[in-house]
Amino acid sequence: MRAPARLGLYGLTLVTVFAVAFATAGAVVPDGVVESWSEQTGDHAGDHAGGSDAGGNDMGTPHPGSATTDTGLSLAADGYRLTGVTAPSTVGEEQELALTIEGPDSQPVSDFDLSHEKELHLIVVRTDGAGFRHVHPQRDAQGQWSIPWQWPQAGSHRVYAEFVPTATGEDITLSTVVQVGGDFSPQQADEPARTARTDGYEVEIEGDLAAGESSTLTVRVTRDGEPVTTLEPYLGAYGHLVALREGDLAYLHVHPRGEEPQPGQTSGPEVAFEVSAPTPGRYLLYLDFQVAGEVRTAPFVLDTMTNHNAGSGDEGPTTGEAPTATDTDPEDGTRHEDGDDHDHDG
Fold first, then answer.
1. What is the pLDDT of residue 253?
2. In sequence order, which ranges of the chain are alpha helices (DSSP H)?
3. How high is the pLDDT of residue 203?
């Protein structure tokens, strides 16, 4: 076949592939999101050939891969695959949550780089945003990761595995959905929520999310009206912030600005983050912070700025209630619910 003919056939094939892809996307995500993707890829496809930036920032620096494409919603990426996911099937059942990461050779991966002091970060949240947990399972000699597990709530839960294979040095997030039987009452947020209370601590978040660009969000931690200045390093930072896009739960993992703290140092009451929202919409945010050796989680709900309020900081009502998060000890899976005023040292 002559070169011009081959090129013509190749171009026709690409057109067909993209047409099918966007038709499929329109069936499972909002039309506005598909249009946004079309605008970003249709006129600038050549500008992004060969790689882009990730859906998260590490100390203000983006991970590899793009926030608009690497959303952590796939079972497989870059030759790696999430397999063998097992978990309790009903509320109250005690079992292990287990999973395996397979590499390009279809074998369990056993070589990982440390990322924020852990080889794998496991994020679990119900699809309405409730029951958020950030834990760290253990890996056995066969490459299976597991952690003791019990579901406090029924419903569909998305399970994310974030890791860095030593073979590539690139951050990857894979996920799947686990169904949990039992009575299910959705807790979707009706409006933005900038204040969260957990274990006697009150946490406020300031700043605006801007779609398609980086913005600064600052959290402030107080207790009994007094600023908390004893925030401890947890996984190499004074706080960890996860942002999920409401609806499909597209995943972003962000970390504070500034240098990594040293062991024994403390900080507070404020921690600033750089966050990039890939598309307009509502985002569910979860802050993990540590005081007196115990990790707590504060949930928030923010909308991206719209044209009429950009720069004004006005997102409408800010007194709503965020979906409930479940604080979990990263080592033994012990839980307590946000909003319960348990007594803790510090």
1. 66
2. 3-28, 31-42
3. 98
Task: Return the amino acid letter for 125.
Answer: V
Tokens read off for 119:
């080889």
Contact call for residues 74 and 174 (beta carbons, < 8 A): yes
Q: Could you write out the DSSP letters of every residue in 1-34?
A: --HHHHHHHHHHHHHHHHHHHHHHHHHHS-HHHH
Phi, psi at 17, each rounded to 5°: -60, -45
Helix residue ranges per DSSP H, 185-300: none
Q: For residue 59, is it left (φ>0), alpha (ψ between -120 and 50) or beta?
A: left
Which residue's entry shows tokens 């997030």?
173
pLDDT score for 257: 87
User: Taking the model in full, what pTM does it have?
Assistant: 0.71
CA distances from 2 to 5, 15, 183 (A): 5, 20, 64
Distance CA 255, CA 270 (A): 13
Q: What is the pLDDT of residue 321?
A: 57
> Looking at residue 181, what DSSP letter applies?
B
Report yes or no: 170 and 140 within 8 Å, Cβ to Cβ.
no
Query: Could you please report the per-residue DSSP string of 209-236?
Result: B-BTSEEEEEEEEEETTEE---BBPBTT
* 47 three-class SS: helix
State how far the Cα of 248 lies from the Cα of 244, in Å rounded to an integer: 8
Give every residue of the chain whose pLDDT is below 50, as ranges. Answer: 1-69, 307-319, 327-346
